Amino acid sequence: MKITLLDYGAGNVRSVVNAIEKLGAQIKPVTRAADILNAEKLLFPGVGNYQSMIQILNEKKYIQPLREYLQADQPFFGICLGMQALFEGSEEDFSGRESVGVFKGRVKRFKTDLAVPHIGWNGINLKKESPVFDGIDPDSKFYFVHSYHIVPEDESVILTTTDYDYEFASSVQKGNVIGTQFHPEKSGSVGIKLLENFIYTTDLKPRKQIDIKGKGLSKRIIACLDVRANDQGDLVVTKGDQYDVREKGDVRNLGRPVELAKRYYEEGADEITFLNITGFRDFPLKDMPMIKVLEQTSRNVFVPLTIGGGIRDYTDSNHVTYSSLEVAAQYFRSGADKISIGSDAVMIAMEYLKTGKKTGKSAIEQISRVYGAQAVVISVDPKRVYVASPDHARDHHVIPTQFPGPDNEQFCWYQCTVQGGRKAMDLDAVALAKACQDLGAGEILLNCIDKDGTNSGFDLELINSVKNAVSIPVIASSGAGCEAHFCEVFTKTGAEAALAAGIFHRRQVPIENVKAYLDRENIEIRGVK
Ligand code: 1PR
Asked: pTM here?
């Protein structure tokens, strides 16, 4: 079977390609308009920004052939923006350029007090019995990552809806034309099954109307792999105690990145994050091993992958300048779904807070503009600073603490650091998170140096103060020591996800146990049977 792939050049198409190839089908990329019309089955994965997608489709003169192909009811599967393109237009695009528009209706931004982007594993309410869902448990969850959703005028095209504050159309089907807002290529084995059904079913048409209610949005469990070269030059997964990764002088070696990522995928991790912890020293585009790690991981791991470390503009010794956008683009091409910015985000936020002006040129703004806010994670590395009263740190977000300082201080603030905690900056974590959200970041990965590697539980005071200040999702990180700590962070803070490293690497607490525990405590999770 040959699948024609419409790749317009943004986002992580590698995962889709890997999934199709794993299913034994061949890929034929679209290189000219005629390839669309000649396709046996057409797959259109879209990630990022609607406006730039429509611009590219117009420039390449793909709109008209797409329309013809779809109007002839040829087999089509659009993913995310690839589905949104079927509709008449989007609130995300004010350019007035032509969209494909074979389905009536528009794409609108979420209007909710819940976090936007809507990121994570959510359920589906099945409205039609369709061959694409054959063999898939209706209670399954799929991976969503978007700020906009379709509003079809003709509700009969809705295949599934999903609940996120309110019910929105999460997939559509009319005849052989299918589109999903969620990412099957990132939805583990159920997503792969969906793609398999699309590829190998001859008659895709829905059989009848049904109404089966699915489950809700899960709290995510993320496995984090801090990666660096050890003194022998091997790329290893390491783990620090309060960011110190050396033991008796050597870099701790807890395994190989590609193998560990595969293990966590099989054990039910909802996402995997790689942090190149010495990335600030070198330029990532010269760090080919990290790119290989992504390429190899994405062949077998079908959940979202985030990569961080060293993402910034860079000028080499020959005075050649590379933009952070180029670095991000290379990472996305290699299999990453999101990039995470640490040190550079602190610099960008400080400059923004000083001038009050958005330049449009910072790494956050540029990457968010091209790939969408959901692809830009800000990794924060704060340290607790105790003060006797809020007056002692007037420029910072000071909170009362239940854990007084060494001199019985009853207040603290969280100081941002850069270069892996080596350098403390005059900026607090709340101000950083708010500034980065303003500039277009889509998610906060909130570490805590005091808690890292201690197994003493997450820093709930830090998490609450940041979560209450932003409307984008927050990933709680650092300090997990047992299953109950995950339950605590989800019941006592609004964090959407919790990340851990040490306990997973050392097999102290398997991911399955964390999920089983949360399930018993009635916290919505993915994947416990
Ligand atoms: O600053 O953009 O180059 O990015 C560097 C990235 O590397 C940042 O995201 C920063 O958080 C990370 N990093 C730098 N140095 C270290 C270190 O440990 N020496 N690791 C480091 C950060 C924190 C988490 C850890 C959690 C959970 N590690 O990644 O996984 O604290 O750990 P636990 O569950 O064992 O407590 P840039």
From this structure: 0.96
